[in-house]
Every structure is written in C-alpha cells, then in structure tokens.
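Retro notes
What went well: the complex prediction finally ran end to end.
Inputs used:
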Amino acid sequence: MISLTLNGKRTSIDVDPSTPILWAVRDTLGMTGTKFGCGAAQCGACTVHMNGQPIRSCVTPISAAANATLVTIEAMQDDRVGNAVQEAWVKHDVAQCGYCQSGQVMSATALLKANKRPSDAQIDAAMAGNICRCGTYNRVRAAIKDAAKAIA
Amino acid sequence: MIIDKYLHQALATANPTPTSTTSRRRFIKASVGGVMGIAAVPMLTPLAQAQNAAVLPPGQKPTETPGAFVSIAADGTTTVLCNRMDMGQGIETALAMILAEELEADWSKVRTGFGNAQPNYIDPMMGMHLTGGSNSVKNSYTQYRELGARTKAMLVAAAAKQWNVAPASLSASNGVVSGGGRTAGYGELFAAALKEPVPAQVALKDPSTFKLIGKPTGLKVSREKSSGRQSYGIDVSLPGQFTAVVVRPPVFGAKMRSFDSKSAQAIRGVRAVLPVDLDRGAKGLAVIAQGYWPAKQGRDALKIDWDLSGVEAVDSVKQLAQYREAARSPGLQAPGDQFKADVSAIAKAPRKLSAEFVFPYLNHAQMEPIACTVDLKADSCAIYTASQMPGVDTMAIAASTGLKPEQIAMHVQMGGGGFGRRAVPSSEYLLEAVAIAKAMRAAGINAPVKMVRSREDDMKAGYYRPMTVHRAEIGFDDAGNVLGWDHRIVSQSIVTGSPFEGFLVKDGVDATTTEGMRDPYNVPMKLSVHHPKVNVPVLWWRSVGSTHTAFVMETLVDEIAVATKQDPVAYRMKLMGSDPKHARHRAALQLAVDKSGYGKRKLPAGSAWGVAVHESFESVVAYVVIARMQGQGKAARPVLTEVTAGVHCNLCINPRTVEAQVEGSVVMAIGTTMPGHAITLKDGVVQQSNFNDTPMPRMGDTPKIAVHIVPSNDPPKGMGEPGFPPLAPALANAIRVLTGKKMREMPFKLA
C-alpha cells in the first residue's frame, strides 16, 4: 500500500511497488488523462508533476511517489498556471489528434511555473522531451507565450 | 489513399443515371448514434450498392436521413454526427460546419459525435465505411449540406404547421425559426420536425452567403483535448475488463515450438497465458492480466522457443541490393497512356541524367499505440477501437467469430493519430484482439479484453510504408526539353491480396505505387513497376505513393532546371504550360512564390531556396522553403528555417484545420529526412524498437511555417495528406544548392 497526495487528495494505492505511476494512475485509479506513448521516457505523453517537478510517469515506479505530491492533467483546470495554459491551448487550436497534449500541457505548465517569461530557446529546451506526431509544435510554442502573458 | 479516385471512375461508368423523382416518404425516425434496423452491413460491393442506391429517390438513402445525423435537444444543443473516424484531421468539426451552415444553426450550440457501422454512415461516394484518401470533405460536402438543408426545411415546415402559416413566409437563422411576429428555437421544434416528410429536393445556399464555411474555426473538441478529458481507444474501460499484451514472433508469420509460462503465471495480476493465432498464420501468446503492467511483466517472464523455419528472414541490405538489381530491367508496364511514351530518343539526347532513389520502410508511429477492446459473447461481439474501415473490419470479425455481421457492434473511438495505420484491409490488429477474446472464452474467461500494444510492439508489428527503389534515365536538350524519361519503381504492392486489389491493381501494377508520377509535367515517360513479394506486411502511410513519387519527380525536375540554367520555378511553369488541367498547380506555386518573396528577397549568406509542387488526392500543395547547413563533416545537417505553403484545395471549409494539416505534414516530412528515421530488418527481425532508436521531429526541428490558400468556390477537396509529399523534395533542392549534394536516399545522407 503506497500513500501519496494525488491532485490535492490523500490517496492510497495497492499495487506492486514497481508499477510505473502511469499504470497505477490509469489502470488502478481509472484516471486516463495521462497517456501512454512509449514506456521509455522518450515522448513525454505521460508527463505528470511530482513534488512540483515534471516527470515521466511511464518509467517512475509508484514506490518513488510514496508520501510525495503528485499532480496530473486532471487537476490542471484548477491550477492558475495550468488553467492559463489550457485556455491558451484552446485559443490557439493546438490539438489535432490531441493524444500527446496532456503531456504537452503538463510540460508547459511546469516550465511556466519555473520561468514566467521563457524565451523561444527556453521553450524549445523545456518541450524537447514531448513528441507530437501531428506536428503541433508551432502552436504549442505560440500558446505557451500567450499563457505566459496571461499569468504575468 | 487513392482508392476513391479509382472507385469513382468505376462507378461513373457502371452507375446508371439516377432517376429524377419527386416522390416523398414519411421520415423514419432514427435515434442519433443509436439503434437502427440493419438493412445490410456494407460489404465491399460498391458497384452493386451504388446501383441499388440509385433506385432510391433523393432524400431516401440512409446517407440522406437527417435524423441519423442531427439531433436537437430542447435547449437548442445541436449534435451533428460524423460519418468518419477522427484521428486529428478535424473532420468532426469540418462536417459539422458544413451541416450547420445549411441548417442555419447556432454554432455555439453545436456539438459533435460519431456514427457507427450502420449504413447511414458509409461514404456516399464509396458505398463503404471509410476514412482515408483525404476524401471525407470531398465526398461528404454535398451530403452534409443537403442534410442541413433538409433538416432546416423540416423545422420550418413544423413551425408553419403550428402557426398555420405558409412555410415560405418563415425564415430560419442562428437556430431560430421566425416569421409573422413569432419565433421558436430549433429545440422547441425538433420533435415535431421529425414527423415532417424529408424533402426530396432542397435548395442549397449560394457560397457567397456562407457564414461558417471558410471561416477559421477551432475544433469542437479542443477543450477536451487540452484537458485530458478526450477519451481514445486505449482509454476504453468496460466492467470486468482484462488487459492483454501479446508476444509476437520475432519474424513475421513464425510459430512457437514450445513455451514456458510458469514464471509469468506467478506474477500478481496475471490471469492467464494463452496461445493465440496471429496475423499471417503466426502463433503467439497473449498474457491476460488485470491492467497493462502485470500483463507486460508477465510477458517479460515468458520463455518461448520459436520455430522460424518456413518463413522468409528479410535482410534489408540484401533486399536493397535485390531491388537495385531489379530496377536495372523493365518491370510490368504501368497502365495509362501517360506512362507509355516512346523513350528511344534518350539514346541520342544531348544531355542525360541517370538517378536511383532509395526509400525505407516507415512506421506510422501515431502517438496512441494500437489498442482494441473486444467484448465477445456467444451471440454478439462489441469492438471498441479507432478504425478507419469499420465495415471491412465487421466482415472480417464476422468471419473470424462465426457471428453474423449484424451481431458485431463497432464502436469507433477517437484516434490518437493514424496516418493510415488504422485502415488495415486485413483487419490485422482487430482480428488479433478478437483471437485473444476467443482464446479467453475457450479457457472459460468470459470477460471483455483490451489488447494494448507497447511502442515496441507497434514499431515491430509491420504494416509499413513499403521500402521502395526508383530508377530514372532521362534525356533532355540544352533548353530543358525532356526527350525521354524511362522510369522504374520497385516496391511491394500494398493492396494485392486485399479486398482492394480488384479496384486498384491493373495489369499487375498497384496504382498506390505509381500515383504521383509524371503529372503535372507533360514529359514523354515510360513507367514500369516491379512488385517483389517480401515477408514484411506493408500499408498506406500518409499520402501513400506520393511519399516517394513526389520526391523523385520534384528533385529530378529541379535538377534539369538547374542543369539547363533555368530558374526552378520558371522551369516548372514552362513544363506545365498553359494546360488548364494544371491551373491549380500554377496558382498554388505562384502563391507560395509571391508570399515567400522568392526571387525578390535576398537571403543571408549560407541560406538557399528550395521549391516543390505536387498534387495528391486532388489537392495541390507548393512549398517554397529556406534552408541552411549546420555543422561540418559528419556532423553536417540541414536546418529548415522557413516554409511558405501555397495550397489549392478548391473551397476551403476550415482554414484553421487546413493550416494545421499543412503544419503537421511539414513536421512529419522533416522526420523522414532525419538520420535513423527508417525501419530496417536483419535476419527477419525489425531492428528498431522505440523513439530512442527511431528519432522523431521535435519542437526544435520545426521551422517557421506560413500557409496560404488559393481562394476558390469549386467543390472542396481533402487536405489530410497533400501537405506531406512536396516538403522533403523542396528541402532536398535547397540542400543541393547549398552543398552540391543530390539527396537520393531517405533519410538523407550528408556525410
């Protein structure tokens, strides 16, 4: 039994401790907003925040989240920065298939929490771990800049 | 896919002229997305279907039934169902826009949803359920306009009856019927409207009065897709459901000699390990577990002795040598007069060009790995997956289960990307999931199961864009006049052996191999094709044949221009001439040239222009790009800095999604040029496994992209694929200017 704070709530999860956070969240808790893309920390679709840092939940065992604070895409609309990012995503019509966008939003939100006015190069660096096969990158970049203005 | 282009031709010759009739029938109520009496689950008999359909008067075909596509709740919320699968191309929004335009709906109250495998939701031109060939808007534009207009007419008729006035005295706008001082929202009238007859003929709006069509519009599901709330096939969860992962043989089609599943069975959460029949006669194992992680752990613990005898072990290096050798001799003559020119003039031509091109196998690598949920019972089978061909899949599943087609329920899910991977003529991944469900039932496990592929599974499972070699011998004169162009293509046929063979293979040549050759250049070409049989399953991949033909055509034409000291744009314009058939090519190219500043703007030292134009799926895209080189020697790589697109897709329904499709195609095409972006085989085994060994374009690889659309009111064409083909050749042409190196291989080799 692993206890942690998930999206602001104390939560206990009874799974094998080696289970990646991704599968504990998706299969055990039924929260499917966090996506499986590669299982190898190569694409960023599974990005969540652990103790405020963006992590790849597909390779991070749930045991590493014991007593930690975990935040997933499901909590972003109630987060000032996350909400601004989501609004910018809608305004810029970022999503095509949308499958990677949970991870993109989580990476972008972590970036803006750490750096309120990122440069293009800083955005590219922070988002380099997130693959989008639909190729929405230019709109992602534009939306991040717009969200930065909104939270300034 | 070009399927519809050919089917269309077949239909045009076989289909009798529809009889004109004014007879009407009472509208049969059908709940939106719900149960309809099944007349027939569509099979691959489009000719017969079209002939039957032609007997029905206008307004009476299942595809013309408003109630199957539109529902309006009392509060005015208007739900429009999409007859296609959406994998990011935005078709659910585009078709809703078209319908809402004629319905005069309040767009803010419009919601979208999807149809199912019922006959209402077939492609009206194709006679089957299909998302592909960039044909959704093209084939359903008039259909959805008429659906909207018919629904509006029925709403007006209902209001006229209630108010006891003539329908002509009423008008409908923004979701409200009004006239004679009275108004009523569509939601108040819809129930009554359903009882009105469906009008056989409806007048459609003049395009100059369009309010929605042509206006940049965001996806209706944009908020869901920005918040994790959008559900995909991989997210499906049914009560009591298990997750299955499959061990597939290391070589396509191989079988197991023996296996040991003791360790796997001991893992917490693993329910069973079951042998299953797989694609191409292979045998493998399915690990059934409570969730993906125990299933994967169970799989990792399996010990299997594979029997690789009797299956060809492909080696890409040897295969390439064989393809090159084959290309030295003529193959099967491609059908079509444009490919049968006398090319004997090459021998005496003052200038000659000889070139060979190599294209690798490509994995679609859609972000959502393939997943398919099956709920199999004694007398029914429900399928949950993002399929582009639910009708074809239904028939395959019926054959596999022994159930009747009407006992199969396809629940088409939102697709997390597709790029062709979800339109599998063999229904491969669906049948695999069904085989697991059958094995479970046989083992006494009566529960739904979700088959999930890992990224490694997805990358190794085959169904690749075929590896392809082109060889061209071209003779031309000093003015750039092409005197003869002898061309050969070596590539596996995609559709031979599939239900599409009859439509797409002629004289032994698969049209998906040759599409995109020659046009729009009226050059004397002789084209022949070799279709080797190789133990690697292949499939269409965004823009299909044009993924390679556009590259070959547009780099070679560019080389001839430069060799004869002509501007590449001017030379293309000259080759296209004044033929009205190529007016859209010229317009798209000119727009890209004008907007980019090509020929006018001076580029910084070390930067160069590159140009290409190509038609695919009846839309034309031209690119003018700017690139520079970065790094020295082995580290040298091209950097694409700016892309200007000129697009001709006739009437553009939603410029916002057309722009998105072009932006996405640019990025995807950049990927195909990146070192390592290929699937190769050794000893029959796919050597790539995940994004660490198969690089994908990322944000830092993305250039500035500007998309410009040629204004037009002609019937709209699709844009899901046409943005892809001309990008890589435009970049290659810029690289040739920068380095003198001719890019004749994908991914690019610069060292």
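What we learned: The mean pLDDT of chain A is 97.
What to try next: split runs per interface for comparison.
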